[in-house]
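Example 3.
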Amino acid sequence: MKTKRKLLAIHIIFIFLITSCSSKNTLDGDNTYIDSLISEMTIEEKVGQLNFPVGDLFNTGPTVRTSESARFDDLIREGKITGLFNAHGAAYTARLQKIAVEESRLGIPLLFGADVIHGFKTVFPLPLAEAASWDLEAIELAAKIAAKESTAAGINFNFAPMVDIARDARWGRISEGAGEDPYLGSLVAAARVRGFQGKSLSDPSTMAACVKHFAAYGAPVGGRDYNSVDMSLQALHEYYLPPYKAAIEAGSATVMTSFNDVNGIPATAHQYLLEDVLRKDWGFKGMVVSDWQSIGEMLAHGFVADSLEAAKLAIEAGTDMDMMADIYLKKIPELIKNGQLDEKILDQAVRRVLALKYDLGLFSNPYLYSNPEREKSDIRSEENLAVAHDIAKKSIVLLKNENKLLPLAKNIKKLALIGPLADNKEDMNGSWSFFGEAQHPVSIAEGIKNKVSSTTKIAFAKGCNLYDNDKSQFAEAVRIAKESDIVVMVLGESAVMNGEGASRADIGLPGVQEDLLKAIHQTGKPIAVLLLSGRPLTLEWMDQNIPAIVETWTLGSQAGLAVADVLFGDYNPAGKLPVTFPRAVGQLPLYYNHKNTGRPYHGKHEEPLTERVYRSRYRDVSNDPLYPFGYGLSYSTFAYSNITVDKKSIKSGEQIKVSVTLTNTSDRDGEEVVQLYIRDMVASVTRPVKELKGFQKVMLKAGEARAISFVLTDKELSFINHDLKRVTEPGQFAVMVGGNSRDTLTEYFELTQ
Ligand code: BGC
């Protein structure tokens, strides 16, 4: 009784405190309320605040649970869980919250987490697709709407953004990030954090971001999910860590550790990463959550002998919250009792969790995020769907358009629509879209029907299934192709073929889809392929034989509308690849910012054998990608000319201006992403042949020419040296500007001390 009265007094003082001062940045400072609360807590209540299980609506990991909506009530009453993830809905979350606040001893509100990776009920394009827009405002807006919708349904903690740099398209989770480049990846990471968190975490339409998966989860050996990561610290700092850092600098309230080990230490107990880099060097003050059972998986890694040791090493390294392993709950009390863990470490983890709840405004209003009215008005509103349509158009990349086959005329007489993904709704939502409903998206068939003239006849044939070897539907597809003026084929991956646990050793079109394409090609009819995928695919035959190819990724709720806009020319595509498309899977990992090597091979296969045999190359496949990073066509054409630097030499600390003339050489207004790359010609650590250091997305009227300028400073010219210090070194730099990472104009300048 006494404790309850005391707590009530603390609550009253606290409400005064939070109404009289801004809640921003409390993670940084002392918080009397939280400290008093901690002083009232038993060890069991403390560990309860670190225990984060999945709710009973759906699973995103390997534990099968049945639906029992009262299953968590007692655990909440007993203070054994800090919140739930994947539980959602205003009424449901409010019901659970009421138990926490009114029936648990301390009344600490619950967190509700979820993977709102690319939208809630309004589904936006896959993150990789959105990155292809190179449009940071659009990306931020999509994240903002995702937050608005999911917070209305009770969710206040989002397991996003996923910012893992990925250079290997075999890895299925390449679809969840922004691709291969640290510069673009950092800007996208920050935009997503700003979108999710807005200006204040306690705003009911924003939620806490969780940058993941720390660290280097995107570099598993062989592209196989969960596999080990072994790389130099220099490469880790230079290419893999920047997007996490950018997310932290943008204010990400939380961080999720990764499943993998990094140079032999599982990320969840990685002192160097979690303590030295994240907290000491980057000054991160927020909360770190493990990934799904990753504390327990340290046993399988062979890093700890039992779960007692797992709990000790994880919490001591700075993993504050245990997602799904139940190990903190069971083992930390024992560790404290045995004197194996300092209670101060437990308190520190609890403080970070409570500070997050505090900053989210949950102590002042635990029901802030469970809003039945907003749930009705803010989810899948016309406005939100319009934003999804807009970013979907911007994400599309035109890969090939021979003889201007595209855009198609709307009054075309007979169009054959063929392919297993043409008349498909559910796969448009893509991987990691658990809240999106299968019947909601606009299919590509619907989008096309909506767009063509009333006299256009559309014949549809599936042609084949997505994965199996059944060719029995080929004949019908060939028949309708023969009767058509144009064939549009919709091919690629279904939603489950990318995302978690979806690595592929062969990244060609699955099943017999390429055979179907070849059969249709035999008819001699013009073909435009619309590709769906969450990763680069190997498309060499297609590229050699098919006149028009459009990468539509997986575009979400408004997929069909966006695709039809591009197909029929209502929108002029401007997307650029955020990731390299290889010719063959054996080239992987393949990325534009590679090193030159001591035996570079720039030549062609036709060169004499003596010229090429002892060079860094393959005997059977060229070194070049099929489509380079940054590549993408438009219905307009652009020419680059006249690259200049305003000084031939600069001193460290000075700026240099790089300019180029961009001309729209077509009769159509269009947008171009102008990209600036640098190369540090000689340095104490070998440098990549190209590094993206700036880009601008510009709209040019037909025939218009414009000077485009970039400014480079020490920041862009610096790199991580062997001692892991960010430095600039004097010497010659090349600057390259172009519409992709391959076709660029080059100038040089000197950096002097
Ligand atoms: C994934 C995380 C995700 C978590 C919760 C894990 O399997 O790796 O990205 O946030 O599940 O759904």
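The radius of gyration is 27 Å. Residues 2-375 form a domain with the TIM Barrel fold (CATH 3.20.20.300).
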